[in-house]
Automatic annotation (TrEMBL):
GO terms for molecular function: ATP binding; formylglycine-generating oxidase activity; protein kinase activity. The keyword Magnesium does not apply. Gene3D superfamilies: paralog of FGE (formylglycine-generating enzyme) (3.90.1580.10), Transferase(Phosphotransferase) domain 1 (1.10.510.10). Keywords: Kinase, Transferase. Residues 398-418 are annotated as: Disordered. Residues 21-276 form the Protein kinase domain. It comes from the Bacteria. It comes from Nitrincola lacisaponensis. InterPro entries: CTDL_fold, Kinase-like_dom_sf, Prot_kinase_dom, Sulfatase_Mod_Factor_Kinase, SUMF_dom, SUMF_sf. This is Serine/threonine kinase.
Length: 680
């Protein structure tokens, strides 16, 4: 992190040009980098986020960033409210960083190291473990993959938000580079014995790691030191920690068994063994309370509250119509009520969990729980009640929750985010040295064929004095970031996946056919929504290209009006007068004509292509770094490339025009861009 530390200063703006963040304060160092509080400048309202700047020594390792990107996609599948929400992976000055929902920076590892966990009440420890465990269990169910990296440093505790578990499986990413890391990660201290072998780990390996975390929380010291190896997992005899009874310790020992099959099948199963059985036993013990128990409880503040409550109801109960209420054994309900109130209090204290709760706050929450309980009948079904409105209080292991996940930052109003699907990037052979690839997602989904662009600079605008005033002044554009553009325009086959998945009507194909023909009759808003959907399902940063990116690609290193020269050559493009069978009649299937020197097809003609930029009638104030113009009249967006309907002059590399964002025609389509990590 030494090189990047000089850049990370309060007020610094970081991130790629299209998604900037302003640093607000440094939170702390972390084994996997530096945590900073920042504001998201690309989202409305500039929401607060937490950025994790990764060690540059890791970013320089082959395939590390690409593997991390896949883990980001995988982690986004877990939508549990206590799973830390990751907004994305971004490149910056040869390094990379992750953006997460806001955090305070405090981890369970900090609390354990500083002895703060000894101050937690049993109910608070239970709440912390239930929140963490349910998030981990949700990750297992939704990804069908083990985490393999569980440790207290990945469990964050924030005021007002409670527990958040980071779902990045770091062991899969850094195992080969541990000797290069300045601060060694904590997962080896908690990993199962099979984690020391090359054999694959499993979900039961995560059960072991979570059990080791539970042991550390209750015992106040870890079960194993960072130097302990696989042999220690078999030979060490652990002592029962304070705070667990004999039955709970027996279950925890089973979870810490070297034999995978002897462990509980899931983290949730372990939590149920530890806590629900304890609750059930307590309920049975309360079934026939003694008079001594009732007498002592009656003298408690809660008992006196119930007595006062019953006394206030006495005149009302005297009504003959309500005489049956006298048969209710209020005193017999006191002790079960106390147990329920204790459980309710513990959960209220743990959501959100606060490591340093004052005596005043504790008493206030206790009284609130007692008052709430006075308004609710206590029954034998309390511990198995499944009313969705009360699940979070009466059954901590229910999978229903009324808590909402925090929303990811958004740039403007947009459709609901689609869960990322398993995505594989297929690398293909191109006709030149530039990388070609296609992303495949879900069972059979596919993105457009993409090709990376070479870094560099070019002259943008009317270089041949054949254009209009809106193509001037000519200026030099320099790209210092990596991106790829679609080899072809987006086809019906590609767009129809989106329309079907989101319930949109299919665009009209004008009777020319669908499949590999470019999609038509789409507005700028339709094109933007397609790229957002594609980014969501793949987890990759797909978007519309900027105007500068589009012209850079169309020119492909040339300075002529069209990529092949300043004179029209028949059958090089589809336009009205370009010498093809489709001229002035209809679209051609994509890829029917020669590619430009960089391998891109149909940049001239076939369909007009929407780009990101808001329209301006000159380049006077346009950026020179390749980014889009996002100011001015954004109800008008730029179109590039011309169409089958246009004359040759309109399909030149620098030709540009505009239309409103909600209009559609059978000459209009688009292609997509995607950001690539540096050094791709």
């Amino acid at each position: 992190m030494d090189d990047i530390r000089t850049t990370l200063q309060v007020g610094a703006v970081v991130g790629p040009e299209r998604h900037r963040f302003r640093l607000q304060s440094e939170l702390r160092s972390h084994p996997y980098g530096m945590l900073w509080k920042a504001e998201d400048l690309a989202s409305s309202g500039r929401p607060e986020v937490t950025l994790l700047f990764l060690p540059e020594v890791l970013c320089r390792q082959p395939e590390f960033v690409e593997r991390l990107r896949k883990w980001v996609i995988l982690s986004r599948k877990c939508k549990h409210p206590h799973a830390l929400d990751c907004y994305g992976l971004f490149s910056f000055k040869g390094s990379a960083f992750l953006a997460f929902e806001p955090l305070d920076g405090l981890t369970l590892a900090d609390m354990l190291q500083q002895g703060q966990t000894s101050k937690l009440k049993p109910e608070q420890k239970q709440g912390l473990l239930i929140q963490s465990g349910k998030a981990i269990d949700a990750f297992h169910r939704e990804t069908r993959k083990d985490h393999a990296s569980l440790s207290p440093e990945l469990i964050f505790i924030s005021t007002g938000r409670g527990v958040r578990v980071m779902m990045i499986g770091w062991r899969h990413l850094v195992e080969d580079y541990l000797d290069l890391m300045q601060d060694p990660p904590g997962y080896p201290q908690y990993q199962a014995p099979e984690g020391f072998d090359p054999q694959p780990t499993s979900i039961r390996s995560d059960v072991y790691a979570f059990a080791a975390i539970i042991y550390h929380l209750y015992a106040g010291k870890p079960a194993f030191s960072p130097q302990d190896d696989e042999k220690a997992r078999y030979q060490r005899e652990l002592k029962a920690p304070a705070g667990l009874d004999a039955r709970q310790w027996q279950h925890l020992q089973q979870a810490l068994s070297p034999d995978q099959q002897a462990r509980p099948s899931s983290v949730l199963e372990l939590l149920k063994q530890l806590y629900l059985e304890q609750a059930a036993e307590a309920e049975n013990e309360l079934a026939t309370p003694s008079e001594v128990q009732l007498s002592s409880i009656s003298q408690s503040p809660l008992g006196r509250s119930i007595a006062a409550f019953q006394q206030r109801l006495a005149p009302w109960l005297a009504s003959p119509k309500l005489h049956w209420l006298h048969r209710i054994p209020f005193r017999r309900l006191i002790l079960p009520g106390v147990f329920f109130f204790g459980l309710l209090t513990g959960l209220l204290l743990s959501i959100p969990l606060r490591p340093d709760i004052s005596a005043y706050e504790t008493e206030r929450l206790r009284l609130l729980a007692e008052i709430e309980a006075l308004n609710s009948p206590v029954t034998s079904q309390t511990l198995t009640h499944t009313d969705p409105a009360e699940d979070v209080l009466v059954d901590p292991f229910s999978e229903h929750t009324t808590e909402e996940s925090p929303e990811s930052p958004s740039t403007d109003e947009q459709p609901a985010i689609t869960a990322a699907q398993h995505t594989e990037r297929e690398t293909l052979e191109g006709g030149n040295s530039l990388m070609r690839f296609r992303d495949h997602f879900g069972d059979s989904g596919f993105a457009p064929l993409m090709q990376a662009l070479p870094p560099g600079e070019f002259l943008m605008g009317d270089l041949n004095r054949m254009g209009d005033d809106n193509e001037r002044p000519v200026r030099t554009i320099t790209f210092d970031y990596a991106f790829a553009l679609g080899v072809h325009e987006v086809t019906f086959a590609e767009y129809d996946q989106f329309a079907t998945a989101t319930g949109r009507p299919l665009p009209d194909d004008a009777g020319w056919g669908r499949g590999q023909r470019p999609v038509i009759n789409v507005s700028w808003e339709d094109a933007r929504d397609y790229t957002r959907w594609l980014a969501d399902v793949t987890g990759e940063p797909y978007r519309l290209p900027t105007e500068a990116e589009w012209e850079y690609t169309a020119r492909a290193g040339t300075i002529s009006a069209w990529w092949w020269g300043n004179e029209l050559i028949p059958a090089m493009a589809v336009c009205d007068g370009c010498g093809t069978q489709w001229d002035g009649q209809q679209t051609a299937p994509v890829g029917q004509l020669p590619a430009n020197p960089w391998g891109f097809m149909d940049m001239h003609g076939n369909v007009d292509e929407w780009v990101q930029d808001c329209y301006s009638d000159h380049y006077g104030q346009a950026p020179e770094d390749g980014s889009a113009v996002l100011s001015g009249d954004c109800q008008l967006r730029v179109m590039r490339g011309g169409s089958w309907f246009d004359i040759p002059r309109v399909i030149r590399s620098s030709s540009r025009y505009r239309h409103t964002i909600d209009s559609r025609r059978n000459t209009w389509g688009f292609r997509v861009a995607v950001d690539l990590p540096d050094g791709h």
